[in-house]
Amino acid sequence: MKKTFVAGLSLILSVGFTSVWAGPSRDYISIVGSSTVYPFATVVAEQFGKTTSFKTPKIESTGSGGGHKLFGAGVGVEFPDITNSSRRIKKSELENAMANGVREIVEVKIGYDGIVIANSKKAEPLRLSRKDIFLALAKNIPAGDKTQPNPYKTWKDVNPSLPAIKIEVLGPPPTSGTRDAFCELAMEGGANKIKWISDLKKRDKRGYKILCHTIREDGAYIEAGENDNLIVQKLDANPEAFGIFGFSFLDQNTDKIQGSYVDGVKPTFDAIADGSYPVSRPLYFYVKKAHVETIPGIREYLAEFTSDKAWGDEGYLADRGLIPMPAAERNQYADAAKNLTPLRLTDL
User: What is the pLDDT of residues 317-348, one digit of tens each?
Assistant: First the structure.
């Protein structure tokens, strides 16, 4: 009887904490997360601040992984209301959030983005295959049917058709959703061109992922933090270096940098929209439903972000480099945002 009472009390407290939290409030929306989504969220936040009676939301660029960690740590004024993400939330992150009392999370996909490998316009653009990218940046690469530490020093070592310049790539850290997506789309995509690695996925999924996702640590790849603007500045100063970031940063800096061709396709708005550019991914943000009735302006911010004037085909986010979703997909996520439809573990 005592055990039943304690279990029941725990359940009541847990549900109560999640759904009726009404503690001390903030008078602004707190947003964390992806550096890629950051510029889009900032434009919406500024528009929201100008056109409503609510304060402009405060946004911090922490990377997707860092954002999910902060967002999923609990419910209450000290925790963020929204986290931006340049990849879909992981099942483990949703489980962790639920364990911390964040039991209802609304998922909103906002559009698509391409991941580019860019360099200064003072140099020639590279024409890379995904296999070239894997062989240039993987910590270990094939040597027959085994692996060896990556010996390649120049792009020409990787592929004789590429220039004899040092492999030097500035890119995001492991906490970044851009890094996750790059490893999945570019590194895995390239590794799969090698038959025994492709076969490895069927018999040793963990070993396959380690091989494909582990980036070299000998100086050829340089973690440049979450500040994509800093990468752009470094590329402009060093024409032989390359940088990895979202298409929007390329689109905003076309006077200084250019994107490499990947599998023969140049990273452009149209090529990402029609799916022909092979290194592209969806972008998201996640909303804590328990905060909606306590933190002022969340519903109105969601309405602004999911309006046609923002994320539509001719919206102001498209002008900033976001690739809009098809109308049916926009309607689906606009309804989820309006109705605060929570994401379920079974959806992942």
Answer: 999 999 999 999 999 999 999 999 999 999 99
- pLDDT the model gives residue 1: 44
Secondary structure of 297-334 as H, E, C letters? CHHHHHHHHCCHHHHCCCCCCHHHCCECCCHHHHHHHH
Neighbour-count burial of 11, counting CB atoms closer than 10 A to its CB (0-12 exposed, 13-18 middle, 19+ buried): exposed
* CA nearest to 49, candidates 300, 340, 316, 320: 300
Q: How many alpha carbons lie under 13 Å from residue 334 in its C-beta half-sphere?
A: 17
- The pTM of the full predicted model, rounded to 2 decimals, is 0.81
Binned at pLDDT 50, 70 and 90, residue 23 comes out as: low
d(CA 300, CA 285) in angstroms, rounded, equals: 15
Dihedral of the alpha carbons of 69, 298, 177, 109, in degrees to the nearest 10: 130
Distance of CA 81 to the CA centre of its chain: 18
Q: Which tokens hold the place of 180?
A: 């996750």
Q: Phi/psi at 311 (nearest 5 deg)?
A: -105, 10
Cβ neighbours of 26 (radius 10 Å): 15
User: What does residue 327 show for φ and ψ, rounded to 5 degrees?
Assistant: -55, -40
